[in-house]
Write a structure and sequence with these properties.
By secondary structure, the chain is an alpha/beta fold. The chain is 44% helix and 9% strand. The protein has a single domain, classed as Alpha-Beta Barrel (TIM Barrel). Strands 7-6-5-4-3-2-1-8 form an 8-stranded parallel beta sheet. The structure holds glyceraldehyde-3-phosphate. Glyceraldehyde-3-phosphate binds next to strand 8. It is an enzyme of class 4 (lyase).
């Protein structure tokens, strides 16, 4: 690795996408994981100032306006894992969230934008809420994602963590967001981290596994990069920044390091892994920044729900307000967009 210098920019300011194929020969093939390549993991370096310089260039490099911005925001909606992960979640709240997931943007706005059939990427809930979400989303094509494995800290015994995965899958969750044991990363026990994620992946079966790294608790960007590699080697379908419960959640810096790890893994193994920034992403402007970062680093092909998700409980409301402004020229109060 790795995150040492910025990629070559072409004269029109877009990244040199030639080296990142839009569709790799293994496109669409689920990442099966690889053997644990310890030399690769241990030898990885991350230059923090290079990361910060690269991130600082992002807002100015790609500003999308007007109809293009509306199109990007619709894309962002389609990639949201609409989330509720609160201690006071109820079946009723989950049902309301699912209704929003089916129709995330007001019909009149979609009509004005010439868009039909828009849904979010998934609905993400705690395991006991899975059956309610599955019922409420029946026939919609919107998958249910469940957090599991002792979310958010992951410090429950392994049999219980595995049982949580099996329970959520049996109840109909198609995606499982697991949390890793941060101590394995902090002590450099890469074998233990690999075995843990591998075991979770086996318990998931056909359900896709998103590995939450909880980057705000990993200490260094180098640890974030190494943990990303190990999770992918262990068969993660997505790597995800945060639970939303850490003191520091998704940041552009950790996101850059993670998408570079995804790119390096793709180049080395040929397998595509998705990226899910999560936690604290609340505004349309932030969503555009993350889409832009991902597009610049991984190419247009990554801006699809199969390879990119926002984990967010309160992003949709601001996106809908911005779309309303684009269509009508007016902003409505945030309370007019409940649950989003
Ligand atoms: O996985 C998703 C996160 O828990 C959502 O975090 P948030 O509530 O800060 O948007």
């Amino acid at each position: 690795m790795t995150v040492q210098e910025t990629p070559q920019a072409t004269p029109n300011g877009t990244p040199d996408a030639a080296s990142y194929p839009a569709f790799h020969p293994t496109h669409g093939v689920r990442n099966p994981g690889t053997a644990l390549e310890l030399d690769w993991v241990r030898g990885a370096q991350v230059n923090r100032s290079a990361v910060e310089r690269r991130v600082a260039t992002l807002p100015g490099r790609r500003t999308v306006k007007n109809v293009h911005q509306a199109a990007w925001l619709l894309k962002a909606v389609s990639c949201i894992d609409l989330t509720t992960l609160a201690g006071d979640d109820t079946p009723g709240r989950v049902r309301r969230l699912c209704a929003k997931a089916r129709r995330p943007v007001r019909e009149d706005l979609l009509e004005a934008l010439g868009m039909t059939g828009l849904t979010v990427g998934a609905v993400c809930v705690y395991p006991t809420m899975v059956p309610h979400a599955v019922r409420a989303l029946s026939g919609s094509g919107v998958p249910v994602a469940s957090v599991a494995t002792g979310f958010p800290a992951g410090l429950t015994p392994m049999p219980q963590r595995l049982e949580e995965i099996r329970y959520a899958v049996a109840e109909g969750a198609a995606e499982i967001d697991i949390v890793v044991t941060r101590a394995f990363v902090l002590t450099g026990d890469w074998e233990a981290l690999y075995d843990e994620v591998r075991t979770f992946r086996e318990a998931c079966g056909e359900a896709h596994l998103k590995a939450i790294l909880a980057t705000g608790e990993l200490g260094t960007l180098r640890n974030v990069y190494k943990a990303s590699l190990v999770a992918m080697m262990a068969g993660a379908d997505f790597i995800k920044t945060s639970t939303g419960k850490e003191a520091e959640n998704a940041t552009p810096e950790v996101s850059l390091v993670m998408v570079r790890a995804i790119r390096d893994y793709l180049e080395r193994t040929g397998y595509e892994v998705g990226f899910k920034p999560a936690g604290g992403i609340r505004t349309a402007k932030e969503a555009l920044l993350w889409l832009s970062l991902t597009k610049e680093e991984l190419g247009r092909a990554w801006l699809e729900p199969g390879r990119f998700r926002f984990g967010a409980s309160s992003l949709l409301g601001d996106i809908e307000r911005q779309l309303e402004h684009f269509v009508t020229g007016r902003y409505s109060a945030a309370y007019r967009h409940p649950l989003a």
